[in-house]
Amino acid sequence: MKRKFLGVCVLLVLLFGCVTVPTAEQHQEQTLNFVVMGDNRPANVFRPEQPYIYHKVIKKAVELDPFLILNTGDLVLGYDAYSQEKAREEFDDFEKATAPIREKNIPLYITMGNHSGYTEFAREAFAKRYKNKETGTLYYSVDVKNCHFIVLCSELENETSKITGKQLEWLKGDLKRAEGKHIFVMLHRPLYPKIKHLKDSLNKYPEKRDELAGLFKQYNVDMVFVGHVHVYNFSVVGGLSQIIAGGSGAPLAGILEDGAFNHFFHVIVDGDEIDYRLLPLQNEVAQAAQLMKEGRVPGALSLAKKAEETFPDHPMPHIIATTGYKSAGRTLEYNAEITKLLSILGSEEEVFFRLGEFCLTVELLDLSDFYLSKALAMDNDSFKVWYNYAQLKTEQKQYPAALEMYKKALPLTDDDYFKQDIKKQIAKIGKLI
After folding, report:
1. What is the pTM of this model?
2. What are the chain's domains?
3. pLDDT digit string, tens, across residues 270-325
4. Where are the alpha helices (DSSP H) in 155-205?
């Protein structure tokens, strides 16, 4: 059996992804082609929409006209889903961004990621939407032509970071039934993590991981696709091949040489041959934000405008452009961007908050102060404004003000994550005053 890697040079991350749209004739000649992507979740609760780059991944993936698409998990942020309504909103936003796949009726198979298991509401929402309708389980398999696709769940309750119990017994039988086909396995947590998550992947339980790997090798699994780590990585351990495909939108891990670039995979199966095509994509939004941080405003504006043309209704390109025009004193363009942001985000308070939050992340502290103060004037009981303002004042080394703002923010949230973080920050700042 031949296996070919047509991996695109990592340097092409700085260019547009090399994506060739197959013609109808080519499609007929290929036995099967499919796409693998994953870890597309938003970066944080203050930017709740699906990342700009995920929209671009979807667009490029659909152009390839695949038979099916695999997603290695972490569709939503999840840890802030403390109600059914909030969980529903997060998955609805994922589906809105994923609409081009649905409109083309391309089968989409998704494994559960840890972010979908942070709260009971997120877990329930994921299971309701994406469990197998026939079996009622989060693990199942699909046959397409001469290929067998297995979707496993590394996030079952009380079985996190391992494949065991009923799922393992089912898997043994399923692999036996699949003998003679190309076998592809997908789950969220890697068997062999790289860069990050070195202690909470399947290697957390080495004996169980090795048992699973032995089972895969016994039945000649062609490839194991995983996510969890936000990089691209290919490895072969003891004869078992694994691809980490975690670059569809969540904050990247490591550096470029570690595989920290946005990407997805296009896999072409033709008889006994399998081509694994790594497709990196330029993330204009991330690059523009970095240029703003470096004070390179013209370059940031150029990339932001390019991103606006690609996806006109995504807020992040407009937030970056607004910041750039404000910094450059270009009033007409600035006002036009404010108007556009208002139409996207719905209120002046949200517009000013998002601008202040972005300026904080790119270390434009005076601008952040300007926007957060405007947002706070519109809503004096906004947790997110007080919380980000407290972070800003900490960066400005105005510790008494930061302390008071954290104290203001604390009673305004029911989120355990933020409550713990605020108490930690209050204790830390208390030692500096």
Report:
1. 0.90
2. 2-280 (3.60.21.10), 285-430 (1.25.40.10)
3. 999 999 999 999 999 999 999 999 999 999 999 999 999 999 999 999 999 999 99
4. 165-177
